[in-house]
Design brief:
32% helix
């Protein structure tokens, strides 16, 4: 099923099935490309909205702060987070504000983390922050 607006905020069931059918053994690193909203949109989760409007970057920082304890508890870690800029090689019409690499011990620990109720309670900050995103599971090659 294609996304008619070409905006991607959450994985589809089909994408999840394809990822788990790869049979990844060992650690997996999630490459996150994130385009942030100028002003966070808490329409879907008003209970998490701050009293005054905040930027998408501030909302994403709230998401990361909420997420870190759950990520660490699952054995995961943020390997890298950084501000992005213009491509050296890539389409000039596409931009990303943040790049993040998150390492999970396995696809199973990633699934346990991603379905943890306490983690999901703060997901509204992520949805409020992000205008568009990409999530690419990366597996280190054997040498």
């Amino acid at each position: 099923m294609s996304n008619p607006s070409n905006v991607y905020l959450e994985p589809t069931q089909d994408a999840g099935r394809r990822f788990f059918s790869r049979g990844v053994r060992g650690p997996v690193v999630m490459l996150n490309l994130l385009r942030l909203r100028a002003i966070a949109d808490y329409a879907a989760t008003p209970s998490l909205a701050p009293p005054a409007p905040i930027s998408g970057r501030e909302a994403y920082e709230r998401y990361v702060e909420h997420t870190l304890p759950h990520l660490r508890e699952s054995g995961g870690e943020i390997v890298f987070i950084g501000d992005a800029g213009d491509y050296l090689i890539g389409p000039p019409s596409e931009r990303w504000d943040l790049v993040m690499l998150v390492r999970h011990r396995s696809s199973q620990t990633f699934l346990a983390f991603a379905s943890n109720e306490a983690y999901l309670a703060g997901m509204g900050h992520r949805l409020a922050a992000i205008e568009d995103s990409r999530l690419l599971p990366v597996v280190e090659r054997a040498r």
